[in-house]
């Protein structure tokens, strides 16, 4: 995980193709601009340009020793990105940037959940039993909420380090903690 404090770096993410490129590199591993273009339905010139923008912001890097000639391989530098909302919104243009990023993240999570819902009938019994969609409401202070988020992320990191198997499907875990005045019914 990377904590980003510079809004200029976050602005590099505030583009739908860049978010998709970074997500693809994080989930599928290193790739080339051409392969990513094919996966995302874009031109290789466009993916190449946006990969360079992500590299300039410190989210991806070229993989040394991979590729030949013009074929450049890229990899994500971090598995996830985090920023401080209060710190970001205190800066000029920060509120708009935060709103844009949150909107894009929520939309991506909706797409992920919709894809799971569409695919779940095709899962074998083991995966159907292992799948978990839960929500919970806790009455917490901001400090306790930050503590809970840190604990949950630490659990994920521990599992990543000790139990992750590259030959298994990627299991998506969404960790969202936020206050709501009323539960939307």
UniProtKB/TrEMBL annotation:
Source organism? Blastococcus saxobsidens (strain DD2)
Superkingdom, taxonomy of origin: Bacteria
* Cited InterPro entries: ArsR-like_HTH, HTH_ArsR_DNA-bd_dom, WH-like_DNA-bd_sf, WH_DNA-bd_sf
Sequence ranges assigned to domain HTH arsR-type in this UniProt record: 8-89
GO MF entries? DNA-binding transcription factor activity
What taxonomic classification does the UniProt entry list for its organism? Bacteria, Bacillati, Actinomycetota, Actinomycetes, Geodermatophilales
Q: How is this protein named in the record?
A: ArsR-family transcriptional regulator
Instruction: State the CDD domains in the record.
Output: HTH_ARSR (cd00090)
